[in-house]
Design brief:
Largest sheet: 4 strands, antiparallel
CATH superfamily of the largest domain: Outer membrane efflux proteins (OEP)
Low-confidence stretches: none
Order of helices and strands: HHHHEHEHHHHEEHH
Strand content: 5-15%
Distance between the termini: 78 Å
Helix content: 55-70%
Radius of gyration: 40 Å
Number of domains: 2
CATH class of the largest domain: Mainly Alpha
Number of strands: 4
Shape: elongated
Number of helices: 11
Strand order of the largest sheet: 1-2-3-4
Mean pLDDT: 85
Length: about 475
């Protein structure tokens, strides 16, 4: 009776010691609180009265860009662009990482077969035992000793603290982050192609304006030459007109080179060799600029791929921190095996003599010198805090980009209206100065300056229209459109 009480007392003490040890391990685990990310945004964009939540970002890019030539270029780029295809492989690698992490918390089962030959020293404990072993009467133990083995062997780490599961969830977040990064690349690729396409249309219009201006200057040059013959003008006037014509011809070749480079930039983006880009620049100046709807700022959190990517990166960092903390706790491993083993192949089928089996359970807990674990946990916390700042930065950057584009679109509209009136006035003044020049009531400098001002104003008008179209593309991108 007393012996039973002593045994029970010892069992109770062992349980108390185990509980105390676990409590000690828990109390020694470092803990650091990371502040939550601030994802709040104003209710509306700067000085803008919100009427509804209609958002142009919800439009598919084929609806947003109505030009069929531009649509064809974007379609081709989304198939052939090298950078985009590289990003697609990054997504595939992130997906494979999920499978790898998932396999870590499942049992590992391996099929093993092997053969070996061993000769041990006779004056060792194993050699002495082998020498005295009788297999059969008058049959010596084989020397050297062969060994044949085949069986199934398994190992499994019990994920008690969810370290492996959190690592797998972190891999899922990283995968989702890579998907959003891919969406972000789509948005930027579409935006870059549209920018280059409108740049090309603007250059076509500039080339047409220069050619039209050269025709006017050619007529003026003929007039001043005739006036010189009639002694109504001097050689100076002729030379000034010739110089102006040569200057504009030189500018024409500069624009042609810019057209070639812009075409080749588009060809590079669509993954093709240099060739002519199909386009129609006739209605560039007259095309209508559709209204953009910005919705409410909070929609940026859902529509902007870069914000969503940062959000998933933050979620992954949180899970990595939990996994790093779990390294301080004991790990539980189970190793098991079953198979056949014998020193001659014919004995492998002799059971139960050749039967081999084992079950081993391990509990390992870090106790002393945990500096490496503490350092990794500290790094995980630092990476999580970095992800918090990165997420907040992405939100702030998105909001400021939209506010800037709203101001840009408004200012460009006023600028375009004024430049349009300037072009109309200067175009009318060309006819007036030409008539005055032919009747000797204006000198050649007035004609030259008027034509030069008209040319510059037309070029500026084209440039402003291009800026309006680029601002519209930028706003669509900044709102998070293009990847849907």
């Amino acid at each position: 009776m007393n012996n039973m009480l002593i045994l029970k007392s010892r069992k109770h003490r062992s349980w108390w010691l185990s509980a105390l040890l676990i409590l000690l391990l828990y109390s020694c685990v470092p803990t650091k609180e990371i502040r939550k990310a601030n994802a709040s945004l104003p209710n509306n964009f700067q000085n803008e009265v919100v009427k509804d939540s209609i958002n142009s970002a919800a439009m598919n890019w084929k609806q947003f860009f109505a030009d069929p030539n531009l649509q064809a270029l974007i379609d081709t780029a989304l198939v052939n662009n090298q950078e985009f295809n590289i990003a697609m492989q990054q997504v595939a690698m992130a997906r494979n990482e999920i499978r790898a992490r998932k396999g870590e918390y499942l049992p590992f089962v391996n099929l093993q077969a092997g053969a070996e030959l061993e000769k041990v020293g006779r004056y060792t404990s194993q050699g002495a035992n082998d020498a005295n072993t009788d297999i059969k009467p008058e049959v010596e133990f084989p020397e050297p000793l062969p060994n044949y083995k085949a069986g199934l062997f398994a190992s499994w780490e019990l994920d008690v603290w969810k370290k492996l599961r959190n690592s797998k969830k972190a891999a899922v977040m990283e995968y989702l982050s890579s998907v959003e990064g891919n969406h972000f690349m789509v948005t930027n690729l579409i935006s870059e192609i549209a920018d280059s396409y409108y740049e090309l249309l603007a250059l076509d219009n500039k080339l047409t304006i220069i050619q039209q201006n050269l025709k006017l200057q050619g007529n003026a040059l003929k007039t001043v030459r005739l006036q010189k013959l009639a002694a109504r003008a001097t050689e100076l006037g002729v030379k000034r007109f010739e110089a102006e014509v040569l200057k504009n011809r030189s500018e024409m070749y500069t624009v042609k080179q810019e057209i070639t480079e812009t075409e080749n930039k588009i060809n590079f983006l669509i993954g093709g060799t240099p060739k002519h880009i199909e386009r129609s620049a006739d209605d560039f100046i007259d095309q209508k600029i559709d209204t953009l709807y910005t919705g409410v700022p909070s929609q940026l959190l859902k529509n902007r791929p870069d914000i969503r990517r940062a959000e998933f990166e933050l979620a992954a960092a949180k899970l990595d921190t939990k996994a790093a903390k779990a390294n301080f706790y004991p790990s539980f491993d189970i190793h098991a095996g079953v198979g056949l083993e014998a020193f001659k192949p014919k004995f492998l089928t002799s059971t139960p003599e050749s039967l081999l089996y084992s079950v081993v359970g391990d509990v390992v807990a870090p106790l002393i010198n945990r500096n490496a674990l503490k350092a990794e946990y500290g790094n995980a916390n630092a990476r999580q805090l970095q992800a918090v700042f990165d997420y907040e930065k992405a939100i702030l950057n998105a909001y400021i980009e939209v506010v800037n584009q709203l101001s840009n679109i408004d200012n460009l509209k006023h600028s375009y209206d004024l430049k349009e009136q300037q072009v109309a006035a200067l175009t009318e003044s060309i006819g007036i100065t030409n008539r005055l020049f032919r009747s000797a009531r204006a000198d050649y400098m007035e004609v030259l300056l008027t034509q030069r001002d008209a040319l510059e104003s037309k070029m500026e008008l084209v440039e402003t229209r291009k800026d309006q179209l680029l601002a519209r593309v930028s706003m669509y991108r900044d709102l998070g459109g293009g990847w849907q």
